[in-house]
Each structure stands twice: as structure tokens, then as C-alpha cells.
Batch of 4 targets.
Target 1
Amino acid sequence: YLIDAATQQMARGQVDQAIASLTEALGEDPSHARAHALLAICLRDRRRLTAAAHEAQAALAAAPHDAFSHYAAGLVHEARREWHGAEQHFQTAIELAPDADWTRRALGHLYLLWGRHREAQPWIEAACAADPEDAANLALLAQWHLEARNTTRAEELAREALRIDPHESDALVVLGYAV
């Protein structure tokens, strides 16, 4: 129950409430990998990167073969600008969840941040192919097109992402630059 509540709180941007829910959940079950992984993401969002890294390691210790634990660890490494560590965890997440779009999107996003635009494209396109109705996938593809100076296509994709989810903030940012 607390993990589901925290996930919903995170989706609504209520990070502090999610941290409280996850802390309570871990008080009941200190080895719950998903709770540690979610807490790592929340702490990353609050820029508490040392604590986030600790929680990501706890998630991996509890579930070393869990794609989401590797995804969370990758996000923490990315926030710390530890590109190779992030890349390794995202690639492991892809191996563990080969059909998931979110693992591919994460690796594509990392490559964009890292300045490896050519390597980003196939991962972003693979995420879009896996779930073409995911606004976050379309927003990232729009960002890729914007950085490739294809503003017309970037605008089209950003508008499509916003049609699916009017609150997709990355699409709003791309749209602001594209028009």
C-alpha cells in the first residue's frame, strides 16, 4: 500500500510526501528493493545525491537482477554526471527488461546529455516503437530533433506529446524552443 501511495505521490510531484511514505515502508520492510529504488529517485529529485546513491545501492543489494533497481541506479549516476556508471546500469536494465520502453528512453536520454547524439537516436526511436503513445518518449524524440536543428519535426513531436499528456514538461520546453 505505501509503495503504491508513494508512486502516485511521485506522479503528482509530491516528492516529500513520497519520501515519507517510502521511509515508512522501509521501516516495515528494510529489504524492499522497489522502495529503495523509488526512494533513490526521490532523493535524486531533491538533489540529495549521496543519499540517493546509498538507496540505489540498497536496491541493487536487495534485487541485483531487477531492471527497475538498475534503472534507479542509472538515474542517480546520471545526476552525478557519472556517465559510464549510468550507461552500465541502463544497459543492464535493458537486458533485464528487453521489451520495456522506459529503459531504452533512459539510455537515449543519457546519450543526449552526454553529447552522444548519434548513439541516442536508435534508443529513443526504439522507445517510441515500444510505446508510441508514451508522451515522454515523444518528448525525448522531439528534444533529439531540436538538438539536430530540425525545429519543424521537433515542434510536431512536442505537440503530439502534449496531445497525449498536456502536462508533459519536457515537451513544453521543446515547444518553447522550437516555435
Note: The chain has eleven helices and no strands.
Target 2
Amino acid sequence: LKLRLVAALSYSNPLTSNSAGQHIYLKKEWATHYHIKHTIVIKGYIHTLTLTPKNPNTHLGITIIHAYIINKAIKGEEESKRCSRWKAAADQLNETLTLKPSPINLAIHVGDFNFAIDPLDRTGPSRGETIEFKEALASFQGHFNMDEVIQPNHTYYHNHEGNTSKLDRAYCTRLNSVL
């Protein structure tokens, strides 16, 4: 992997006290076809790359959104703290709504979302996702005209309790809106 990254453009969202930071890598040759704009939306948590084609007749415009939605569940936490934690996660998603979806032809949103919406997304108990958070997710998907990329695999394994969850997610522009 390291050898491949040497030949890549790297865009970073730096470390914060609660986040290990994030990176988006692109092949260097993409710079010959696109004007690339890197934006940090929330330091350490959400950043974007907007790729505007130098020749719109041959390339689609692309926006890549990379998110780390902080949402650390605490065993036995009080209801008010659980709601506050989910409100903070919803606020992070809502912050992406300040990004304008035009002139995007294709939007890709990937990251560590730290939530499971469907009961099939987890083997353990629910972490208590709130209606407010689910509405923020729906607003995000509608704003960018995105659907989740279907993948059934769980991406988090809790060693001590044996629970698994699908926390890492990818969303993409609905294909019929691009074609």
C-alpha cells in the first residue's frame, strides 16, 4: 500500500483530540483532468474534495465527502446523555448540508459513521439512534441525491462482547440522476 501511495495526491484532515485524522488519496494523473479543491468542513471529522473537470465533455464532476461521525456509546448512560450524543452526530451530518450539490455530477460519501440503522446492521443491542439523527441522515441523503451502497458485511468487531456492527458506510449519487 505504501508504494502505491507514493504515486498519489494526499489530502488530509488533521488530528484532533477525539479523532485520528483522515486522508483522501487520488491518483496523481487525476490532476491533469480536474481542478481539485480540498475543504475541511469540521476539523478532524469531515472533509471534502471537489473535482471540477477541466473538460466537462469528457469527465464528470465529482465530490468526495469523507466523514468520521463521532458517537461513542457508553454502557448504562442516562437517556439525556444518549440523546445529546446522537444530537451531536446529527449536527455533524447537518453540517454537510452547507455544501452545495451543484455542479456535482457524482457524489461519493464514505466514512466511519458509527451507527446502525437497520437491525440487521448489528448483532448486539441497539445503541439508541434517535429520530433526530435518522432525520439528519435522510436530509443528507436527499440533499446529495444519494443512496447507500449495499454491502452486507459488518465492519466493527467488539472482542469482549462478541458483537459486530456495520458502522463504515458508503453513499453514492443515484445513478439515474447522473446518466
Note: DSSP finds five helices and ten strands in the chain.
Target 3
Amino acid sequence: LYDLMSLNVKYVKDNYGVINIHRKIKNYYHIYHTYPSIGDDLWNHPENYIQGKLLQGAKEFYIELVDYYGVDAIQIVTSSMENIVEVKNEMIREKFGITCDIKHSIFNKISKHELTGNTVLVDDHIDNVINHVEFNDANGIIFNYMDLDYIKERAVLIDGMHQKISYANDYETLLKMIH
């Protein structure tokens, strides 16, 4: 729902001179290990992190889910560095205008699948979706909102391996899968 990738692309271009990293990366861990200062300078620095924006259509998508299922049935599980948890909570509540259940998987401490339980996880990180499905025996949807090659390539590799994993790259498809 939040466009962290555009912030990553700008940071890496400004600090490392590398252009279009979103076409070269394998996942967020790859970004972190290839450009290690990004963790402290961007992901764990509240003032920098909140410079991003919601993905186009994210608020409308969220509102439709709330209208259909009710706010108590919706939870946002987000990956966070410890230093930005409270700022991120405020940002999410402000941008969506609705108070919902917000949970944080803490980088290198708590994984998303430990927080998601028997829900449908929608995530752009394939490993989060796979772990959610395998540990919770629940459904998951890989959401490739930026149409990134590495996500498409990995999604093709796991297609058929997990009947509980689906793939979407737009909100319309995503809503049909959830409903």
C-alpha cells in the first residue's frame, strides 16, 4: 500500500549513482545487503521514511475492504525497523483516515507469518507470502504493483507448487481474489 520502492530508487541513485535499481534487485534483503546504509539512512529514519506516498489506488482499495468486511476484520501487517514503528503507525492512520489493527514485523526479529495467522496475506515479498501459507495454512496473494521482473520470475517458479498462493498486479484483480 505504501511506495517504499520509489524512495529506495531515489536513495540509491543519490547516494550510490545507480539508476533504476527496481529493475535489478531480487528483494528488499538484496537492497539492504547491496546498499547497507539504506537501513539506517532511510528505513530506520522516520523523517526520511515518511517522505513516501501511498500507491495509487491504495486508499480506495483499503476503503473498499473496510466497507465490505468492516474495519475490525482488516489488519495491516507491515515490515518495519524498530525506530519507526510509532511514526509509521501515525502515518498509516493519517493516510487511511481509519484506525485499524496495525502489526509490525521487525526487521531481523519478527517475521510477518508470526503475526498473520488465519488471514489472507497480500504482500509484494514472495517469501513473506510463502512463509504465511506454509506456517499458517492460509491463503496468500503476491501483489506485484510495480510489475517488477524479479517478482514475476519467482511467481512463475512457484506457480502450481502452492494452491493457496495467487498473483495479482492491479487492485481490481486483487479485490476479486479477496472477495
Note: The chain is about 50% helix and 15% strand.
Target 4
Amino acid sequence: GSVPADPRLRWRTREESLVPQVTYPSRVVPGPPPLRMELPDGWEQVWVPETLVAIVEKDTGAGHFLANVTVRFFQRVGAFTGPDAVDELRGWLADKEDPQFEGDKGVEVDGRMWHGAHLAFRDPNAGTIGQVHFFTTAAENDVVDVLHFTGSCGGDRAQEDMPTIRRILESIRLETGAGA
């Protein structure tokens, strides 16, 4: 056979090929589901640590907090639901300045239930930030996969930006089962 171009690589011997291997993703650890969602005109995809997807309003120099959306993925063990995630969110918000919380929101998107809350808090640099958070879950044995959608905008732009954020949420499509 041919020799790999990179000397650090080498072909596996027949004996090594017979050694059992694991892969990721796998049936046992499938990882986050593939997803797609609308990218509105005037927005762009960006990289944000610990997110599957992040999009933001393009900076046109207007000097306001840029509306943005992130989708994160995490897992819990045992019985964990969308309303449980909303309860955790309430605890996170308690540490913020001037917290406002409107919970127990639910929306069905493409046959999947998302549980969420609307909230606001004061950021020392950006002023009041309005957010919507929605969670959807899928259980596999003792593990619960959780997708967390967050849409954020400046509080003074909520009337203008929240309809766009809501449209993005309603556009999410997951390649997975129905969810809880």
C-alpha cells in the first residue's frame, strides 16, 4: 500500500484493526441533535463558546445592544423536564440586578414542546437586557438531553427585536424525536 504523507500517521496493522473501538457520536452517546433555524436579514452567525449555534444582529454602528440568539445543549441525569430548567433559570436570574421574571411560558414548535420564560435584568454596561429562554428535553434511559434557546435584546428595543427573536424560535427544526 501507499505511505501516509504525514509521518505521524501510519496504517493500522490487521491486529490493530480487530481491536474494538468506540466512536462519537454513537448510539450510546449520540450528542446534540442536528438543528436548523432562520437567519434573518441583517443578522450573521458567530462563534460563541459552549453553544451549538449563535447568531447576532450585524453591527451597523447604531450604538445599541445587539439582538442575538444562542442555542446551547446540556444533559441531566434522572427526571428533568423543561419546567425544571425554567426553575433553574429563576435561580440564575436572582443574582442579577433588578431582575424581572415571567415564567411558565410554553410554545409548540414543529410538534415539540418548548418551556420557557421572559425575563429582564440590568447589566452595568449594556443597561436593561430583555431575554426569552425556552427549553426542550428528550429522555434516553437515565439521561435527559436539553436544548436551551436564548434570545436577547436591549430593553429599549424589545418591541422591535422580540418579534424577530420569536420568529427565529418558531423556525427551529430538530432532526430527532418528539420531545417532552
Note: The first strand starts at residue 35 and ends at 36.
